[in-house]
Design brief:
globular, 26% strand, 28% helix, Rossmann fold, 2 domains, five-stranded mixed β-barrel, seven-stranded parallel beta sheet, alpha/beta, 9 helices, 19 strands
């Protein structure tokens, strides 16, 4: 350990303090949970956090001066991100907000080559350009039910015999989402941390450079298609940058958007036409799982969206899985073509 100036992604050693009289559940690098009831030394990752429902935190543009005793905060629940606290939601929020707990730095983790960063552990896929289909899952807000829905879709596609690669593409952290994808039947799971990015908020350049590596890695690991979950909403977390990557967009057969209300859906249509430019024929809308689908569908029809899937309906989920299979390109390999026919039946 040594003092120094840390930036997003750098590893820092310090003491995390659980809430008085309570415990803190942490996940280690193997995704194994640990329950802490007293102050404990851990290795965490420096990073900002930009959330509309959980903790917001930042790092100074010039980097954070880290030395023994520097006080910052644990800002991403189980995922181990620490930064300078900007704002924490009320503990009684309906979104069950993640922890913002004191973190006393001991120093930056370093070796002979310098400060250790998660960027050193970026995946290095063996293929140079993506060749398999992608299904993007997005929403009009955070905490809209994307991860739960992605799990249901993954489960159905896996039952058709497809090896599904699941990627949490953007946002901050992501390990819990990847764990849910794996439990739902994904054969390969990755998130932006595997690309060396603790967050995709901020500078868009590393997002453009590194996020495609995740998709190539999933294909190199044997995936037949990729279910890619975008964090936050369509205009946050550098999600618009993803839509500007031809390598990914050329392979994206469906964009599935969960909408909280009809006006949000209309906003998606407007933003897509003016900024994202995703082919409208491949765009599908779902009502929020926290709304009454019947009422939502009538309201969506009022803004010109007359086909809306219900994420709480098994029949609609089956129809959507078949629709995804219908979108598989005729240029895919023979085995994928056979699976397309199987699920279409």
């Amino acid at each position: 350990m040594e003092p120094g100036r840390g930036h997003a992604g750098d590893l820092v050693v310090g003491i995390v303090e659980p809430p008085p009289g309570a415990s803190l559940r942490l996940l280690d690098w193997r995704r194994k949970p640990h329950l802490l009831e007293t102050p404990c030394p851990v290795v965490a990752v420096l990073g900002p956090r930009d959330s509309s429902t959980h903790v917001c935190a930042f790092l100074p543009p010039e980097g954070l001066a880290v030395e023994v005793g520097t006080q910052i905060y644990w800002v991403a629940g189980e995922s181990g991100i620490v930064g300078c606290l900007e704002r924490a939601p009320s503990a009684t929020s309906v979104h069950r907000p993640e922890h913002a707990l004191p973190f006393r730095c001991s120093g930056l983790l370093a070796d002979a080559a310098g400060i250790l960063s998660i960027g050193r552990f970026t995946v290095r896929p063996s293929i140079g350009r993506l060749g398999i289909p992608i299904v993007m899952v997005a929403a009009t807000s955070s905490e809209a039910g994307k991860t739960v829905f992605a799990g249901k879709l993954i489960n159905r596609l896996a039952r058709y015999g497809l090896r599904v690669g699941a990627i949490k593409v953007t946002g901050t952290g992501g390990v819990r989402d990847s764990m849910h994808h794996a439990a739902s039947g994904a054969a390969i799971t990755l998130d932006q941390v595997d690309a060396g990015l603790i967050t995709t908020h901020g500078d868009p350049s590393p997002v453009r450079e590194k996020i495609p590596l995740l998709f190539r890695q999933a294909e190199a690991s044997g995936a037949d298609l990729i279910v890619a979950e975008l964090g936050g909403d369509l205009v946050s977390a550098n999600n618009p940058v993803i839509f500007g990557l031809p390598e990914l967009m050329e392979r994206t057969i469906r964009l599935l958007v969960i909408t909280n209300d009809a006006l949000a859906a209309a906003g998606v249509v407007a933003v897509n036409e003016s900024r994202l430019h995703f082919p409208a024929a491949r765009l599908r809308f779902l009502s929020s799982p926290f709304r009454n689908h019947a009422g939502m569908a009538r309201r969506m029809d009022q803004v010109g969206i007359n086909r809306v899937f219900d994420p709480c309906s098994g029949e609609d989920l089956d129809r959507l899985a078949v629709d995804v299979c219908d979108g598989l390109s005729d240029k895919t390999d023979t085995r994928l073509s056979r699976n397309r026919l199987r699920c279409a039946r």
